[in-house]
Amino acid sequence: MRDPIRVAVTGAAGNIGYALIFRIANGDLFGPDQPVILQLLEIPPAMGALEGVAMELDDCAFPLLTQTVLTDQPDVAFAGANWSLLVGARPRTAGMARKDLLSANGPIFVSQGRAINDNAAADARIVVVGNPANTNCLIAMHNAPDVPSERFTAMTRLDLNRAKSMLAQKAGKPLQTVKNVTIWGNHSGTQYPDVFHAQIDGRPAAEVIGDDLWISDTYIPTVQQRGAAVIAARGASSAASAANACINHVQSWYAGASEDDWVSMGIPSTGAYGSPAGVIFSYPLAIEDGAYRIVEGLELSDFDRAAIAASGQELLQEREAVGDWLS
Ligand code: NAD
Ligand code: LMR
After folding, report:
1. How confident is the model at residue 212 (pLDDT cuts 50, 70, 90)?
2. What's the 48 CA to ligand 1 centre distance in angstroms?
3. Substitution site in 131, 153, 160, 224 for ligand 1 pocket (most atoms within 8 Å of beta carbon)
4. Helix residue ranges per DSSP H, 157-204
5. Please, are residues 186 and 202 in contact by the beta-carbon 8 Å criterion?
6. What is the pLDDT, as a whole number, of residue 1?
7. Residue 143, helix vs strand vs coil
8. Hey, CA dihedral for 260, 286, 255, 247, is it positive or negative?
9. Nearest residue CA, atom 2 of ligand 2?
10. Who is most buried in 54, 105, 182, 308, counting CB within 10 A?
11. 3-class SS at 63?
C-alpha cells in the first residue's frame, strides 16, 4: 500500500467543500490505488457542521480515506500537507464583483500562507479557489517565503470548462474534440477565454464555429460573466462545478497535460505574452512530472494582446489594493 497523500481543504463545511471532499475521499484526485488523509479546516462557528460532514464521510466507508482531521487551527490543517486546497472564503452575492471581496478575504490568505510556510510538506502544492482567487493566491504566496513560488496556483479551470462546454455545444461536436482553449489573466470579468489558438476536431476552432460575431459578442462575455449568471439563477455562487474544476486542476497538475491538450491555471507571472510581472496570471500550460511550463510560440493578434493587457492591468490594480498584505 502506498503512503497516503495529505490533502488540506479549507472551508470544508461550505458549499464547495461539501461537493469536493467526498470526491477526494473517493480517489478522484490521484486514482484508485492512492490512499488520502483529509485535513479539514473551518472557522470555530462552523465546526459543528464540519463534524456532521465528517460523520457522512465515515458513513460512505471510502476504502482510500485513511484518516480525517477536523480543526479550526491552520497550523494543524496544513501539518505535512502535500496539497492545500484553499476554498474557505466569503463568496460574492448579486451585484458584487469578485474583487469587492478582497478586504473581507485577503487576511485569510495572510494567515494561511504563513501556516503553509511553517507546516506544509516539502513538496507542498497549493490551489486557491476562494475569491478573488488570483490576488488571494498572491497574498498567500508572499506570506510563505520558504515555499517555492511556483507551487502557488489560482483556479481558472472552471472558466476553461465553461469555455470548452460552450464551444462544443455551438459546434455540435463532442467535448473531448475541443482542445487548447486558453483562459488568460484573472478569474474575473476581464479574463480572456481565447478561442483563436484552439482546435475543434483538429481544425482551428474559430473556423469551425464560423461566426466571429458570436465569438466576440456572445461567447467571450458569457464565459466572463458566467459566475454572476449562476449567482443570479441559483441565488448562490457555483459550487458543484467549482468543486469539479478544482478536482480537474489537481488531476492535471498531478498526472500531466500535453502541449496537444493544454490547460490553464493562474501561476506567478513571468511577463510571457505581454503579461505583467508580479501577479498571478492564467496562461496556457503543459505539465509533466508535476512541473508546468507556459506553452511557447503562440502568435498573438492585436485583439489577443489588448485582452491580455486589460486583464493584466486589473491584476496590477488588485495587487496595489492589497500592498499591505504582501510582506
Ligand atoms: P461558502 O460560504 O458556502 O463556504 C465557505 C466556507 O469557508 C464556510 O463554511 C466558512 O465557514 C469557511 N471559512 C471562512 N473563513 C474561513 C477561514 N479563515 N478558514 C477556514 N474556513 C473558512 O462559500 P463557497 O460557495 O464554498 O465558496 C467559497 C469561495 O470560493 C468563495 O470565495 C467563492 O467566491 C469562491 N469560488 C471560486 C471559484 C473559482 O472559480 N475560483 C468558483 C466558485 C466559488
Ligand atoms: C464563479 O466563477 O462561479 C465563482 O468565481 C463565483 C463567482 O463569484 O462568480
Report:
1. very high
2. 17
3. 131
4. 157-171
5. no
6. 78
7. coil
8. negative
9. 227
10. 182
11. coil
Q: Are strands 65-71 and 291-294 parallel, antiparallel or unpaired?
A: unpaired
CA-wise closest residue to 312 among 284, 273, 285: 273
Q: 305 is written with which cell numbers?
A: 494582446
Atom of ligand 2 nearest to the CA of 238: 3
pLDDT mean over 3-25: 98
234: left (phi over 0), alpha (psi -120 to 50) or beta: alpha
Residue 133, CB-side half-sphere exposure with 13 Å CA sphere: 29
Q: Cβ contacts of residue 12 below 8 Å, gap of 6+? A: 20, 21, 38, 40, 41, 42, 50, 53, 87, 88
Q: Give the number of whichever ligand sits closest to the CA of residue 245.
A: 1
In tens, the pLDDT along 302-320 reads 999 999 999 999 999 999 9
**Interatomic CA distance for residues 265 and 267, integer angstroms:** 6
Question: How far is 184 from 195, CA to CA, in rounded Å?
Answer: 11
Q: Indicate the average pLDDT of the chain.
A: 97
177: pLDDT strictly greater than 90: yes
Q: Supply the pLDDT for residue 9.
A: 99
Pick the catalytic residue: 142, 187, 197, 249? 187
Mutational test site, ligand 1, from 85, 129, 159, max ligand atoms within 8 Å of CB:
129
Identify which ligand lies nearest to the alpha carbon of 72: 1
Is residue 221 very low, low, confident or very high in pLDDT (cuts 50, 70, 90)? very high
Instruction: Dump pLDDT digits (tens) for 31-64.
Output: 999 999 999 999 999 999 999 999 999 999 999 9
Grid coordinates of 67: 484518516
187 is catalytic: yes
CA dist 40 and 50 (Å) reads 8
* 132 upstream amide cis, omega within 30 of 0: yes
Q: Closest ligand to 115 CA?
A: 1
Question: Residue 69 in contact with residue 77, Cβ under 8 Å?
Answer: yes
